[in-house]
Amino acid sequence: MDTKALRQKILDLAIHGKLVPQDPNDEPASVLLERIKAEKERLIKEGKIKRSKKSAKSSDTPHYPYLLPNGWEWCNLEDIVSFGGGKTPSMDNKEYWDNGNHLWVTSKDMKYSYITNSLMKITDKALEVMTIYEKGTLLVVTRSGILRHTLPLSILEKPATVNQDLKTISPHIQELSEYLYVVIKANEHFILKEYHKDGTTVDSIDFDKFRCLPIPLAPIAEQKRIIVETKRWFALIDQVEQGKVDLQTTIKQAKSKILGLAIHGKLVPQDLNDEPAIELLKRINPDFTPCDNGHYPVGWIETILG
Question: Are 193 and 293 contained in the same domain?
Fold first, then answer.
């Protein structure tokens, strides 16, 4: 079973509105978009985010790839989130690193869907020169040698800072985090192919294009059902993958056991009428020097390959 393809199929069904049934009583995504817009204006007014300039990649008449179910709406990623980034505090300044207890996330930490820890941590002093991102922020690696094969994406489970190889995606309404994770992962192959930045020494994502990623926005109630169903399917796939690993381990152990039995004369019964191995050795090399037979069966003999 190709579990990787199965995961992709689940994600594709999710973003096309085919993974869970629609409920006509759900608040439509158009209302959700108005709430997001109002929340964005509030955050700007309070100085928590800046009003972003419309990306040069945006179009007044966007063309979206497929029709959505009733109650869904298309939008661009930049319409519903704010973006950020990070840096590396000076490694020469011990005050930034010694006994640090604040998460500083790098691409090396981006191995899991949810970030709860980091390999390196920074101090309170380092926080003075860093931006700290809240729980629910999505992190994406936009510069790394692995970007030809996969797009590392995670959600913060704890507040954290990040280094310069990561971009942060902060939904204006935090409830959107897990759904946006599903949408971005569903578009992973598209992003790696279409948004890859050429002409750079390190593989990177063209972030101006990425910020305009088309988002099929489901009603918030349906988003929650999609997340539950996606997690349920992925948990089943995890079990299948673990079963495959266990089976491969068992097969490897069985092969080793069979070979061990074979070379110790325990795989098939001996026949006393068989010509003894010492006679075979005499024919192969009349000048051989017999060795101790060790623990091998009668008729066998231990010798040196040379």
Answer: no
